[in-house]
Design brief:
By secondary structure, the protein is mostly beta strands. It folds into 2 domains: 3-214, no CATH class; 234-321, no CATH class. The protein has 2 helices and 29 strands. The chain has helices at 3-17, 175-182; strands at residues 50-52, 55-57, 63-65, 72-76, 79-83, 87-89, 95-97, 100-103, 110-113, 118-121, 127-132, 147-152, 157-162, 185-190, 193-197, 202-206, 212-214, 234-237, 240-241, 244-245, 248-251, 256-257, 266-271, 276-281, 286-287, 290-291, 298-303, 309-316, 320-321. The strands form 9 sheets. Strands 3-2-1-29 form a 4-stranded antiparallel sheet, with no helix packed on it. It has a 4-stranded antiparallel sheet with strand order 4-5-8-9, with no helix packed on it. Strands 10-11-12-13 form a 4-stranded antiparallel sheet, with no helix packed on it. Keywords: Signal.
Length: 328
């Protein structure tokens, strides 16, 4: 499922459920809303990183057991921040949350936020950002205002906790309708700034100062959709036809890169570094019911400079979860 669809699904579940415990919030940083972990030496986030079940495999081949199923995750600080899939809670199951947990890989985890319906981290693992649709101030209809939180995991301090661009719960705004139409979402990090798309405005957070500002909608913004390589030289064209992935890798000038070493039908979803992208290849065929008998979708990596791809032994597409911020 593509990221946009996943966020929409979370929003829909939240709005149908309607309501969570309200709390105050403010623009800018300083106040800690949780006992955030801190680490002077973050995990090495380089290389191919993915999760299978309750285990996160790092680029060096080591495993982190987090003690619960991983539905979505990022590496930040000295561990893994992850969710295990949302659930209904509260009196009579009236609202929906997707709690954020943290683990250093010792087989246990602790909850650090009541909801994290969208999640990102910087490539070096220093900064964590998440969008909370469950704990903000409620409007007159019982819908919580969305809150965006950015944490510096080297200090455990919140850089920002803001509702800018998320409507006004004290006004006549119907936040459920507003969010369903606008689909607020995180975009990612670039050049010392965290970016997100609010319900009413595009917003930027300065990581050095914690300043939260509304962005010019017409101004150029970094490509943070997961399809572009970190240095911007390569782009994945996300294509799905005839019941199968048909992704293409192209240069900034639009020239297509010929991929070799794997079956031609590929789904490229997670940039490992400036030139290597990971994904899946369809070895066989698919129809309206799914993969045909005997077909598989192994994990692959592809080098953009040469077009050479390799199969990663072991897990297949239905077992693997890539870090949030990927194109899938």
């Amino acid at each position: 499922m593509r990221l946009r669809a996943r966020v929409v699904a979370a929003l829909t579940a939240l709005f149908l459920a309607a309501g969570a415990t309200g709390c105050g919030d403010s623009d800018g940083g300083g106040a800690a809303g949780s006992d955030w972990p801190s680490a002077s030496t973050p995990l090495d986030t380089s290389g191919l990183v993915y999760a299978v079940g309750d285990t996160v495999r790092l680029g060096d081949g080591s495993d982190l057991a987090v003690g619960a199923k991983v539905d979505r995750f990022v590496l930040a600080g000295d561990g893994v921040f992850f969710t295990s899939g949302g659930h209904e809670t509260g009196p009579d199951g009236r609202y929906y949350v997707d709690p954020l947990s943290y683990s250093t890989g010792d087989g246990t985890a602790r909850e650090v936020a009541a909801d994290a319906s969208d999640l990102r981290a910087t490539r070096d693992g220093r900064y964590l950002m998440f969008m909370d649709f469950g704990s903000g101030e409620k409007d007159q209809y019982g819908t919580p205002q969305a809150v965006v939180v950015v944490v510096d995991t080297t200090t455990g301090d919140e850089v920002a906790r803001t509702t800018k661009g998320m409507g006004d719960p004290s006004s006549d705004d119907d936040l459920a309708d507003l969010y369903e139409d606008a689909e607020p979402r995180l975009e990612g990090f670039a050049d010392g700034t965290a970016y997100y798309r609010g319900a009413t405005d595009a917003v930027a957070i300065d990581l050095a100062t914690g300043d939260v500002t509304v962005r010019d909608e017409d101004a150029s913004a970094p490509a943070l959709d997961g399809l572009h390589s970190p240095d911007g030289r390569w782009t994945v064209e996300d294509v799905y036809e005839d019941y199968a992935p048909q992704d293409r890798l192209v240069t900034a000038g639009g020239e297509r890169v010929r991929l070799t070493g794997v079956p031609p039908q590929v789904d490229l979803v997670s940039w490992i570094d400036d030139t290597v992208v990971a994904g899946y290849a369809l070895d066989g065929s698919a129809d309206a019911q799914g993969l045909t008998a005997g077909s598989t979708q192994p994990l692959i990596t592809c080098e953009a400079t040469t077009g050479r791809c390799e199969v990663v032994p072991g897990p297949t597409w239905d077992q693997v979860t890539f870090p949030e911020g990927s194109a899938d």
